[in-house]
Amino acid sequence: MNGSVHQQPLAPDPPQPRRSMVVCAVLGVAFMAAVDEIVFHQILGWHHFYDRSTSRVGLLSDGLLHTAEVLGLVAGFFLFADLRRRRALAADHAWAGFFLGLGGFQLFDGVVDHKLLRLHQIRYGVDVTPYDWGWNLAGVLLLVIGAVLAVRAARRARGATAS
Amino acid sequence: MRFAHAHPGAAADPGLWGWSSSVGALLAVTAYVLASGRLRRRGDDWSRWRVVSFGAGGAGVAWAGVGPLPGGPFTAHMSGHLIVGMAAPLLLVLARPLTLTLRVLPPCAARWRLLALAHSRPVRLLTFPPLAALLDVGGLWLLYRTELYEATQHHPLLHAAVHTHVLAAGLLFTFAVCQVDPVRRRWPLSLRAATLLAAGVAHAVLAKSLYAAPPPGTSLVAGDLHVGAQVMYYGGDLVEAAIGTALAAAWYRATGRAWTRRRLRSAAPVLEG
């Protein structure tokens, strides 16, 4: 009985566009945070581990964001593997979510962490203005790519259900 | 980590805590290996990875007790804490020592008492994840943000008590969050994951604050303090990621089984019809 059941081609789960997008946005945020940590903190040594001007709220927000990134990377990976296993991954929506996550973190880090909370600056001992512009424009660009991909994914999904 | 750091002249002597924790860890590993061998000889399945995990955890505790640790006094202290309070507890807990003990013991008074203890009200309370997290990370805040750390450098008994607490609280926290051994009250994944997140935040904030300000009453070299704080910050990340992976992998296996059952159920009527 069991053997014959396994030979039956079972229908895969229907694609889950919203879940695909959210899971990949989590992965995008965590990925960008990891890039920030590895490239700017560790390899280039531009960012400082602790900046004297850091406030208590800043420390708390940094700890929360940092831990959430680490755990988000792990959770996102397993949620992604679960979507793949059930063949429920909607690839277009997944890419859109990933870019939205990348850009969202980049812009949040540039505006809230660097400027509002003043956790640390991009680089020390230089005029930081061009770095801030480059950083935040890169974030906006990634967000725009994500938004374009999301609109295209939504259009395609509508087209597929209409036909 | 070692009491010896306070007295450079006595560097060879790991102190009360060092010797007792090392001997205790090696005894526990020996008992574990014997018990798992007995299970396997009688034909039960017991993964070798669990034996490896328990052995590595026990070796970590023993090494932190008597072995040399790199860096200045505070860095070495922090590496020792990371091993004893976080990494070794995870390795020991994932090896499911309680399950192994219950399976290897014959139906006798000792086994009955152990089971009664595991299901008792105090254990149920202590393994409530947020409380376990509070005992673990709250203890660290007490240690580094009061004069306690400075006092442990001069009083061997206090030093031993603090390190015993770090190991016990680390074991309790990991046990409560991972929940791989049989306890009566099962907590949902959402609560355990949220507890892990909150504990990780408190740990990260404490590590960064140590970078800026040493424990009260100490006069540490800035370089040593900074490296120690970063060991705590990034080392904590690694172990938190490992605990998160253990939780996520358990979720992945459980949802996979549920999904297969659902598919088989939905496929069965088609076969019959």
Question: How would you describe what is shown here?
Answer:
The complex is a heterodimer of chains A (163) and B (273). Chain A is mainly alpha-helical and 163 residues long. Chain A is built from five helices and no strands. Chain B has one domain. Chain B has eleven helices and no strands. Chain A binds chain B through residues 4-5, 8, 10, 49-50, 52, 54, 59-60, 62-64, 66-68, 70-71, 73-75, 77-78, 81-82, 85-86, and chain B through 193, 196-197, 200-205, 208-209, 211-212, 226, 229-230, 233, 237, 240-241, 244-245, 248-249, 251-252, 255-256, 259, 263-264, 266-268, 270-271.
What topology emerges from the helices and strands here?
The complex is a heterodimer of chains A (163) and B (273).
Chain A: H1 2-7, H2 17-43, H3 56-85, H4 91-116, H5 129-162
Helix pairs in contact in A: 2-3, 2-4, 4-5
Chain B: H1 15-41, H2 48-66, H3 73-94, H4 97-104, H5 109-118, H6 121-126, H7 129-145, H8 148-152, H9 156-178, H10 189-212, H11 222-272
Number of domains as seen in the coordinates of chain B: 1
Query: Which whole number gives the mean pLDDT of chain A?
Result: 82
Number of domains of chain A: 1
Oligomer: heterodimer
Strand content of chain A: under 5%
Query: Low-confidence parts of chain B lasting 5 or more residues at pLDDT below 50?
Result: 1-12
Give the count of helical stretches of chain B.
11
Largest sheet of chain B: none
Q: Give the chain pair forming the largest contact, with residue counts.
A: A-B, 27 and 36 residues
Distance between the termini of chain A: 38 Å
Question: What class would the helix/strand composition of chain B place it in?
Answer: mainly alpha
**Helix segment tally of chain A:** 5
Protein name (chain A): Putative membrane protein
Transmembrane segments (chain A): 21-44, 64-81, 88-108, 133-154
InterPro entries (chain A): DUF2243_membrane
Keywords (chain A): Membrane, Transmembrane, Transmembrane helix
